[in-house]
Specification:
110 residues, alpha/beta, Nucleotidyltransferase, domain 5, 26% helix, 27% strand
Length: 110
């Protein structure tokens, strides 16, 4: 499964960003292959529709789950839920730690 993590940087050692739609990067990690890619959030500073557009982007990348340290806005949540994407909260210190907690089934669904 591909999992998107809202991140402050572009590596697995990066901290988790509490701003889902306005995070600095999305790390998309494939739990089946352990491969990952970092995507800069180029629309973070735009005025409106950021949550919806980022949700659609993550769905287009094949993500089945999202992990963030903060909240997912109602519009973004609606788009994600409609596509069957589950959202999880975490207090992990790094993307890598959040992924490990996800793999172990230790994250709570938002």
């Amino acid at each position: 499964m591909k999992v998107a993590v809202s991140a402050r940087g572009s590596t697995l050692e990066s901290g988790i960003d509490s701003r889902f739609a306005r995070c600095a990067y999305f790390i998309v990690y494939d739990t089946d292959t352990d491969e990952w890619e970092a995507y800069e959030n180029t629309i973070a500073a735009e005025r409106g529709g950021v949550g919806t557009r980022n949700s659609q982007f993550l769905i287009s990348k094949g993500c089945g789950a999202v992990i963030t340290a903060g909240n997912v806005g109602p519009n973004a949540m609606s788009v994600l839920k409609a596509s069957g994407v589950k959202c999880y909260g975490t207090d992990a210190k790094s993307v890598k730690e959040a992924i490990e907690l996800f793999k172990e089934g230790k994250l709570q669904e938002i």
